[in-house]
Design a protein that fits this description.
single chain; mainly alpha; 2 domains; extended
C-alpha cells in the first residue's frame, strides 16, 4: 500500500504526468460519442478526464483559470464538481459574509419595528 507522500512523488515524475495528461484527453474525447447515448454516461467519462488533465498539466490549469475568469458561475460549478479546496474555501467565505450581513441587518430591523 502506498502512502500519500509516495503517491505524490510518483505523480510528480514527468513520464507519469504526461501519461495522465494523455489519458485525461482521451477520456474527454471519448465522452463525446458516449454522451450521445441515452443517460449521463458522457458526464461520468468527461469529469475524470478533466480532473486528470488539470492535475497533470500547467497548460490546462492556465486555460482553466482563464475560463473561470470569463465564466465565473460555470467555474464555480466546475470547482464544486472537482471537489477543489478553493471551492470549499469560497463557500465558507460566502457563508461567513452572509451571516455578517444578516447580523448587521438585525439591529436596523428592530429599530424600524419600534
Amino acid at each position: 500500500m502506498w502512502t500519500r507522500e509516495q503517491w505524490r512523488q510518483f505523480e510528480d515524475k514527468p513520464g507519469v504526468q504526461t501519461f495522465f495528461f494523455i489519458l485525461g484527453i482521451v477520456l474527454m474525447l471519448a465522452a463525446i460519442p458516449i454522451g450521445a447515448l441515452p443517460g449521463p454516461g458522457g458526464l461520468f467519462v468527461f469529469v475524470p478526464g478533466l480532473a486528470l488533465t488539470l492535475r497533470s498539466s500547467m497548460w490546462a490549469k492556465r486555460h482553466y483559470v482563464k475560463f473561470k475568469r470569463w465564466q465565473p458561475k460555470a467555474g464555480r460549478w466546475t470547482d464544486w464538481g472537482l471537489r477543489r479546496a478553493s471551492a470549499k474555501r469560497r463557500e465558507e467565505l460566502a457563508k461567513a459574509r452572509r451571516e455578517e450581513e444578516k447580523l448587521a441587518e438585525e439591529p436596523n430591523e428592530s429599530l424600524e419595528r419600534r
